[in-house]
Amino acid sequence: MTKILLTSVRDDEQAAIKDYAQKNNIEIITTPKLIDEAVDLTTDVDGLVIQQRSKLPEDIYAKLRANGLKQIATRTAGFDMINIKEANANGLTVTNVPAYSPRSVAEFALMQIFRLLRKSYRFDHQVAQNDYRWFSDEQSVEIHTATIGIIGVGRIGGTLAKLLKALGATVLGYDTNPRTDLDGIVQFVPKDELLKRADIVSLHVDLNPTSKGLLTTKDFVLMKPTAGLVNASRGSVVNTADLVDALKKGTIAAAALDTFEGEETVAATNRREKGLDDQPLVKELHEMDNVILTPHIAFFTNLAVKNMVDISLDDVMTILNGGKSPHEITL
């Protein structure tokens, strides 16, 4: 019987995992550990599915090859934690789940856009201090009067664009490959123009050498001082030090960040006692009353979790059966 190991497994994934094992007559072993700490469990399995934000140790690829593994599937869209060249050099095919549920992240981004337009971050802080007043500079913007700029108009960005258009917003888009199927929904413009015109800028790019540090000080100064930023893509797309500076100076008004630099040691951890002293920029963001931080949970919906499990396991089975996955990553 085919045996597959899943690492970093959460309780909410277990139902989908059990269902897949029963339907496909395979054995699935699960562990809450990262693959870094669970490599010994791969000595007696046929396939491997991981999920983590921290980089895999460089020596792990040779260990997996020695244990007879042929592939690594990550049940995430991002794959920057894996050294693809080193994996391939050790005969390991790497796959990801590029579209587990574009709607999940798009809906989350839409929620954050509403929160920034309605300045709920200000009221959240005030009410937490038993201050129930409102002030002239807290007057909000109705979404059908707003211009929203989407950087990265792929599966998620395109889904968000359709939701925004249905609400009457003006939608600007910037992408290296503008989509003709979104004619009448998105007006594609250069990045600088988008930054200058948008009331909210929402980021939906993957992390690659061209997108790392995509927004820095020179970009923030182009934005309206009343504008907000939503990042539900990858933390390193934004230069955090420059963003903190822009928020402090009032270069831009606010930010809603589901991903941020330093999150690999913060997201999914309990920091009530330890605090954030080891991540000073995250600490600064956390203390600002014009920042909304969430712990990388834009994807976290019922459908997305099931799809992440099912699609990653489908890829493992395809490769083990000698096929080629459409989600194979090569460099």
Structure description:
The chain is α/β, with parallel strands linked by helices. It has two domains: 3-100 and 302-329, 3-Layer(aba) Sandwich (Rossmann fold); 102-293, 3-Layer(aba) Sandwich (Rossmann fold), CATH 3.40.50. 34% of the residues lie in helices and 15% in strands. The chain is built from twelve helices and 13 strands. The strands form two sheets. Strands 8-7-6-9-10-11-12 form a seven-stranded parallel beta sheet, with helices on both faces. It has a six-stranded mixed beta sheet with strand order 2-1-3-4-5-13. Helix 5 packs across helix 7. The longest helix has 19 residues, at 302-320. The two termini are 33 Å apart. The model has no long low-confidence stretch (mean pLDDT 96). InterPro entries: D-isomer_2_OHA_DH_cat_dom, D-isomer_DH_CS1, D-isomer_DH_NAD-bd, D-LDH-like, NAD(P)-bd_dom_sf. It comes from Limosilactobacillus balticus. Residues 110-298 form the D-isomer specific 2-hydroxyacid dehydrogenase NAD-binding domain. Belongs to the D-isomer specific 2-hydroxyacid dehydrogenase family. Residues 5-329 form the D-isomer specific 2-hydroxyacid dehydrogenase catalytic domain.
